[in-house]
């Protein structure tokens, strides 16, 4: 695109040089002053005519060099504006990509948190199911033990109490481990799925081992009961009442401790869930705030780009208008000799020995018909001024460029005329 622009400027410069040389060749010896008016409705009180007169070759070359320099500066300015516009577009694309990435990350984070929460609920359901299984097993064991003698029942109750305490202790440890694992899941959400699978595998392995240990313990317990039954019958009879009272007290305390532990666990779990929800809300608010700020920045950037585009459009229109004005001037300068000759042919030669020169503001329509001719710079002789205005009116229509686009620039022009003796 810069090469095409440079070539375009070069072609325009060549045409302009040819036009200037042609105008100089035709305008030698003619002192015609004219001014182009951009707006037909303009009512400017002061008119500064543009004179077309003979100039030297050095002046022409200097003017052409000045024009080439201006065109080069204009080309460089356009290139710089294109670079800035391209940079602005790249920044906008990067900002849009970053916003999309932030939105995708936010959605992925919310999905991951939901999956972790579902996994936690599933694990709690599994824990409750395990508790139900344990309860049913304990009920089955109690039903079998009731069939034994009273002494054996008391012994089994004592052993069962010991086993329950051990299981309660183990259950608390498992719950503590579960709490730590859940905390680690929340802190390392990026590997939540893998950790959940590992925990599931460990849990199944732990259940299998627990079942094996329980069966082995039951078998050992059965054998131990049979061995100790005969030896402890007498001792258990004497300790029966004391043990029964101690058992009741221990059961009461254990129930109170378990109830308090359960309440404390529920309270801490509620606090943990509340903290998680609060953190999620804060993250959502922060992401929403960041998204709105990014949208505002993009809107401001788009607004600035629109302002820049309008400025570029105005500059382009002005440049087009200036180019068209120059073209109109160059084109009109080729018709100056013909206008001069036609007015001269209609001019009545006066018998005067003095040199006179007058300047007339000529207004024409689109076909070249003279609408008015008004003296703007008198020669000092009313007769000479009147003869010139009459000659201009009689020379109507004047020869003008056929292109109607040039009319706005030549509908009024200053025309200078002097008698041949000058």
Q: Notable features of this structure?
A:
77% helix; 3-stranded antiparallel beta sheet; mainly alpha; 5 strands; 422 residues; two-stranded antiparallel sheet
Structural class per helix/strand content? Answer: mainly alpha
Mean pLDDT: 81
- Total E-strand runs: 5
- Major sheet size, sense and barrel closure: 3 strands, antiparallel
Low-confidence stretches: 25-55
- Principal-axis shape: rod-shaped
Output the strand order for the largest sheet.
Answer: 4-3-5
What count of helical segments does DSSP give?
Answer: 7
Helix content: over 70%
- Kindly estimate the percentage of residues that lie in beta strands according to DSSP: 5-15%
Alpha-carbon distance between the termini? 54 Å
**What's the Cα radius of gyration?**
54 Å
Order of helices and strands: HEEHHHHEEHHE
Task: Summarize the structure in words.
The protein has a three-stranded antiparallel beta sheet with strand order 4-3-5, covered by helices on one side. The protein has a two-stranded antiparallel ribbon with strand order 1-2. The protein has a domain at 116-283. It is rod-shaped and about 170 Å long. By secondary structure, the chain is mainly alpha-helical. Helix 1 runs antiparallel to helix 2 (57-146). It has helices spanning 2-27, 57-146, 150-187, 192-333, 336-346, 382-394, 407-410; strands at 32-34, 50-52, 357-364, 370-377, 412-418.
